[in-house]
Specification:
globular; 4-stranded mixed sheet; alpha/beta; 263 residues; single chain
Amino acid sequence: DRDRRAVAARRRGGGGGGRRAGGRGPRAMTAAIEVRGLGKRRGDRWVVDEVSFAIAPGEIVALVGRSGSGKSTVLRVLSGLAGEHQGDREVQGAPAVAFQEPRLFPWRSVRDNVRYGLTRTKLSRAEAVSRADQALAEVGLADKAQAWPLTLSGGQAQRVSLARALVAEPQLLLLDEPFGALDALTRLSMHRLLLNLWRQHTFGVLLVTHDVDEAIALADTIVVLEHGRVAHTLDIENPRQPPGQRDRRTDDYRAELLAKLGV
């Protein structure tokens, strides 16, 4: 039954450094997250039903599907924001989350917004400030540490959101359409930033997106949801193309994925 089979993403990584961009390494022994039989009801309807998959350390998995297919619900369950659910999930450490809206606290400085990502740690204030400043430098906003969120552009605010998510050095990053509200050029810039951060830290990523080209450009594996269930998977076998660049294989993946989505 395809609707109830587990979709296990290939284990990549190992060797202490994770999977290298553009290539497939040996199988890793553990997963950044493993999900088995995930289910979530809304009233008398299953919005997510028997969803199973795994993400290896250093692997990017994109979750795509039509509106209402259950993509964001899966992410909210995995992040602990959706309340009661069925099934099992095993996560290495606490996952970090970034949403389409940056969700910054307007009354806190950019630095303090990033430092908020360390509230569950036992770092001293000085250590937390140092880590926050380092995270801001990694996303190219070292000069905005004392700025207020309302003075930032949309792309800058999303960079702060990423810095806040990554400041605690998670093993898994959950992204719920984080670039959906950005203009095309800013989206490409954010794609480059995400891949640069991913190469540096080799965290696993679950990316929820409605953008077929974005999924192909960023992911190792694409999981297609239909009516809350896993309907198809597609492995992207070629090395990642620079964001915005397409070739014949990219076009073939796009055509295959659109066919799976029934477009």
